[in-house]
Structure formats: C-alpha cells, structure tokens
Structure to design on (375 residues):
C-alpha cells in the first residue's frame, strides 16, 4: 500500500497588528508621564492637559474615569497631598513618579538597551585588568597563574609535541588578555537661556529627557560612574537629578564660561581618572560675570571678549585632560564656526544636531568614550 506523502510549507503569516494589552491605568499613566515633563512637574497643569485630551480623544470610559485614575495615582504612591506656598492645599508628584519618568526617558531614547547590573567602561588598552577579551598571548614571567588558559595551553602542547610524547613547556603556555574597567565622571551642562524656548520650538524638554535618561542609564548600568548636572544662564549652578522634571528656562543670557568653571571645579574633586563634559546648548555665549559681581552682556553677534574667555576655558579643560563634547542645537554658520574653534581649543568633539536624535548621539558618545587610564 502506497503511503501518502505530505509536504510542509514554511513561510510568514501576516495578520493585523494587535497592541499588547494595557490596563486603563497603564494607558493613562504613559500619557501622564509624558505630559508631566512638558509642564515641568506642575501636576495641576498636567491634569488639565489630560482633561482636554480626554474630551478630544476619549481617553477614559464610564467604567474608568479620570477621577479613578487620579485616585489610583494616590493609592500607588505617584502623587501626594501637600500644602502649597500660598497656604492652600494641593497635590504634587512624588519621588516614585520622578524615577518612573527617568525610566520612560531611558526607554524612549535608548530603545532596547538592557540593564546589566554593575558595568563599567572598557579601556582601549589591554593588560592586567579584570574583563576577559577572548584574545591570548604567550606567558610572561610575573603573569598570575589564574590567568593561564589551560585549555589553550594543552592544545598548544599537543600540536607542538604530539600526543605520544606529551609534554607542556613554557613556550606552550598562553594567558588570556584582559582589559581594565575604567570609571567615568561626567558633567552634563544644560543651557537654560531664554532662546531654548524661542522661535516656536521647545528645546528644553528634549534636553531634560536626555539628562533623565542619562541619569537612569548611569545608575543602572554603570553604578560606579558619576553624573553631575549643571544648568547655565546668566550664572551656573548644580541641580539634583530629582529636580530635572521641574527644570524651566529663565529670562537669561548664556554664560558658557560660568558653566565651564563650575563643571571643571566639580571634576577636579573627582578621584576617577576618566572625566568628561557634555554640553547641550542652542545659542552663542553672550554673558560674563565680572569680578565686581556685575554682568557683561552682548547678544549682538559673537563678542570677541566673551568668545576669547570661552576658548581659554576650553584650553584649561584640555590641560586637565577633560574632553568636552558639545551638542549644538542650532545650524547658524557663525555659531557653528564658534563651536568648531571651541572644540579645536579643547581637542574635543562637536555634534551639530536638532532636537531629534540628541539622546542617541549622547548615548553613543558616552558608550564609545572608553579610553586608557592616564598614569
């Protein structure tokens, strides 16, 4: 009896996309986390935005209303009641929400980046380090015994002497190369001058998102690294990571020199050998603080006195082995020329970019800046 023959066909099956299930709370919470960044942490304004969006896009249902969502935010510890400065009662976001916002920024900007617990930056050079490279070299006097690769050494002995007269000589022994894990100290400078919200473009919100994502990346993937964040307008001052959602632009000029002075002062106190400065700005330097406490300001073109001070700070950072990477959110030719000269003085790097793709660029530069320790 002849048996039937069956042929199995392999291929792709296409069907309409079905979004993963999200509870009503999770759907609204995703929207809430995005809005709260744009409102600089103002909860009342964020909820007003959500009410307007709900009217237009029907975000809620009779079974789960916006009031239900607000009640769940309280129960889950994302918002709390507080007394406002004017003495009236109100609500505000909590530290739990701030962390959730940072994680969202990390997911948005760095995509599928996986957390790996404790990690560090690899140095370019190989030597007596603590991370295996998969490469081998001949044994040298003084190499630690635990670095000897027995499998590769026995393999060499079999090849060199044969199985019949097996012997293991010093020439057969190899050790596996390792790399140092270098710790990194980073200062992120954010321009909060008035131009960061001019011309109908919100540039401060993407800058805040990048800062939050970088903070979450470092604390989760590179816990030995340090990140300090400073803002600069007429002056410069440090801010805590938890303050990032509340960061706003002020009626300021751009005192790049003050930002550089503070950044280098912070890095001087760090014990890590590897140090770097990231600067996010969209405008030209237009302000200096004088020795008597007054301000010298000039928004008309590039002021030679101010620019010269900036170049001097870039050279000082170079002498301290602190590279500066500038992310310029502007395309004006004369500003690009200034950044080019500034970068040349520091021997750093510069990226001329819009607000899109800013996070990916900073992440890439952070990951790639793996250099050998300066001895």
């Amino acid at each position: 009896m002849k048996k039937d023959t069956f042929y199995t066909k392999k291929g792709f099956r296409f069907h309409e996309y079905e979004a993963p299930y999200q509870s009503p709370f999770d759907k609204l919470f995703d929207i809430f986390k995005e809005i709260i960044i744009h409102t600089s942490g103002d909860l009342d304004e964020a909820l007003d935005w959500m009410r307007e969006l709900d009217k237009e896009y029907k975000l809620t249902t009779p079974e789960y209303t916006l009031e239900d969502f607000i009640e769940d935010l309280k129960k889950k510890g994302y918002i709390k009641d507080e007394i406002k400065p004017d003495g009236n009662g109100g609500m505000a976001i909590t530290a739990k929400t701030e962390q959730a916002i940072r994680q969202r920024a990390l997911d948005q900007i760095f995509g599928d980046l996986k957390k790996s617990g404790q990690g560090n930056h690899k140095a370019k050079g190989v030597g007596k380090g603590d991370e295996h490279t998969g490469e081998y070299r001949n044994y040298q006097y003084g190499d630690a015994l635990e670095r000897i690769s027995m499998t590769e050494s026995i393999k060499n002995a079999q090849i060199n002497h044969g199985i019949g007269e097996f012997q293991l000589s010093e020439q057969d022994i190899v050790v596996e190369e390792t790399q140092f894990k270098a710790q990194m100290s980073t200062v992120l400078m954010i321009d909060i001058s008035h131009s960061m919200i001019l011309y109908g473009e919100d540039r401060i919100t993407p800058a805040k998102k990048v800062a939050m994502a970088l903070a979450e990346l470092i604390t989760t993937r590179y816990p030995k690294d340090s990140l300090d964040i400073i803002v600069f307008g007429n002056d410069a001052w440090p801010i805590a990571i938890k303050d990032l959602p509340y960061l706003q632009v002020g009626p300021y000029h751009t005192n790049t020199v003050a930002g550089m002075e503070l950044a280098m002062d912070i890095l001087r106190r760090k014990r890590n050998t590897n140090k770097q400065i990231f600067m996010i700005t969209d405008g030209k330097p237009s302000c200096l603080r004088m020795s008597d406490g007054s301000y010298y300001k000039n928004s008309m073109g590039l002021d030679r006195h101010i620019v010269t001070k900036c170049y001097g700070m870039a050279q000082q950072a170079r002498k301290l082995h602190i590279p500066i990477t500038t992310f310029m959110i502007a395309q004006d030719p004369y500003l690009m020329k200034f950044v080019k000269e500034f970068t040349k003085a520091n021997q750093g790097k510069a990226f001329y970019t819009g607000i899109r793709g800013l996070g990916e660029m900073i992440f890439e530069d952070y990951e790639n800046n793996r250099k050998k320790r300066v001895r």
